[in-house]
């Protein structure tokens, strides 16, 4: 008798063993429970753990709508909620019709819907490098392959169009952009968008625009593309994604959305409606509460902007012109990238900082940086933790 159970799908091909940094972190946290020094976590990405002040009564009241007791599902999402999404964009001088909006339980689910809509098994999606390493996992769940295209740095980040065009093949179906990118904090520029849209349209490729960090710019820039949700005079078909996890600081209140734009968007919306109707994943309470949640959490967005800007200023003060390291140019988002000397590998820097200085950072290869040596630091950490952590990081690097 075979007692090992059924074999799992080939989608699950990843090594689940902890990497050396995770193993050391687990060891340090066990020791911390016995009274050893606290870990200064400069990787914090959960806003509910970052010491922000939430308007608790308003959030709880918004979710206590008695209409939640009745279930009248709309595959695209309740009109009231889709109108709230349009209100969010209207406050940012962008006109969106509720008929172009599909609600999802998260941005991750939005990606899954779009992969289902646009690809067949074995097809390809182009994704930026460096960027958040979730793409490979989301694509694999849909039997889709990701192919990276590089972002280059020459004092500012930009798309390498020659490499992008070379990466596209006969089975390429879409291009993902993250605007602003995570972790580089770089926004798409107008000249890049013009070229990208024309190229995608000529090849019949969709563009997936992930804009979850778009509210968190550090300064204005007239050349920046703030959002692709408007759909005005658009050559390519674009699917813009966002949700409450980042813009409201509420990752536990599951609601995201897709805004479809450009040629063919009506047929695409029909397909998305079929997919959404199959899952009906978005809960009624959060849909009814969306408008009030967006209003109530404006204070949270303001706190995040103030927190990230203050921590960025603190970091810049520690890594000046004479420092052995430098902060790469960042325009927005919750992270910074610090280039450190190549006298060690990124993994060695990260392990040394955690083991010797009790400072947790992420090595650049977590985000598919092509070269050494970069460390990724979150700007969301509480100011006292960030100040001490960045001081130790700076001192550690300078002493070596």
Low-confidence stretches: none
Overall morphology: globular
Question: What Rg do the Cα atoms give?
Answer: 22 Å
The CATH topology of the largest domain comes to Aspartate Aminotransferase, domain 2
Q: Going by CATH, what is the homologous superfamily of the largest domain? A: Type I PLP-dependent aspartate aminotransferase-like (Major domain)
CATH architecture descriptor of the largest domain: 3-Layer(aba) Sandwich
Number of helices: 13
Mean pLDDT: 95
Oligomer: single chain
Strand order of the largest sheet: 2-9-8-7-6-3-4-5
Number of domains: 2
CATH hierarchy, class of the largest domain: Alpha Beta
**What's the β-strand tally?**
14
Terminus-to-terminus distance: 58 Å
Helix fraction? 25-40%
Instruction: Give the SSE order as H and E letters.
Output: HEHHEHEHEEHEHEEHEHHHEEHEEEH
Question: Proportion of β residues?
Answer: 15-25%
Let me know the largest β-sheet: 8 strands, mixed
> Structural class per helix/strand content?
alpha/beta
């Amino acid at each position: 008798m075979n007692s090992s159970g059924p074999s799992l799908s080939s989608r699950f091909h990843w090594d689940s063993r902890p990497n050396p940094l995770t193993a050391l972190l687990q060891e340090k946290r066990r020791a911390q429970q016995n009274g050893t020094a606290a870990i200064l976590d400069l990787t914090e990405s959960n806003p509910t753990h970052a010491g922000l002040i939430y308007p608790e009564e308003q959030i709880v009241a918004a979710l206590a709508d008695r209409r939640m007791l009745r279930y009248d599902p709309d595959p695209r999402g309740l009109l009231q909620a889709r109108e709230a999404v349009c209100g969010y964009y209207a406050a940012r001088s962008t006109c969106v019709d509720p008929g172009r909006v599909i609600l999802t339980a998260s941005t991750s689910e939005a990606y899954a819907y779009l992969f289902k809509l646009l690809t067949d098994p074995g097809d390809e999606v182009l994704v930026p490098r460096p960027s958040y390493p979730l793409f490979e996992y989301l694509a694999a769940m849909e039997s889709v392959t990701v192919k990276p295209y590089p972002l280059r740095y020459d004092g500012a980040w930009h798309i390498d169009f020659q490499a992008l065009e070379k990466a596209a093949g006969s089975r390429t179906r879409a291009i993902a952009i993250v605007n602003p990118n995570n972790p580089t904090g770089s926004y798409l520029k107008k000249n890049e968008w013009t070229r990208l849209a024309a190229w995608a349209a000529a090849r019949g490729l969709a563009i997936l625009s992930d804009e979850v960090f778009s509210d968190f710019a550090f300064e204005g820039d007239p050349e920046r593309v703030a959002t692709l949700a408007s759909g005005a005079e658009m050559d390519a078909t674009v699917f813009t994604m966002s949700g409450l996890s980042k813009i409201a600081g509420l990752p536990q209140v599951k609601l995201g959305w897709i805004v479809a734009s450009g040629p063919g968007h009506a047929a695409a919306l029909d397909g998305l409606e079929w997919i959404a109707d199959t899952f009906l994943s978005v809960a009624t309470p959060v849909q009814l509460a969306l408008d009030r949640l967006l209003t109530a959490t404006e204070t949270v967005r303001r706190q995040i902007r103030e927190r990230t800007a203050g921590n960025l200023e603190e970091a810049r003060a520690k890594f000046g012109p004479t420092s052995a390291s430098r902060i790469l140019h960042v325009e927005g988002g919750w992270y910074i990238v610090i280039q450190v000397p190549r006298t060690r590998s990124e993994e060695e820097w990260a392990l040394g900082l955690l083991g010797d200085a009790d400072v947790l950072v992420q090595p650049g290869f977590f985000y598919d940086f092509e070269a050494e040596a970069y460390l990724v630091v979150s700007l969301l950490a509480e100011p006292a933790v960030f100040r001490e952590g960045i001081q130790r990081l700076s001192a550690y690097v300078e002493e070596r």
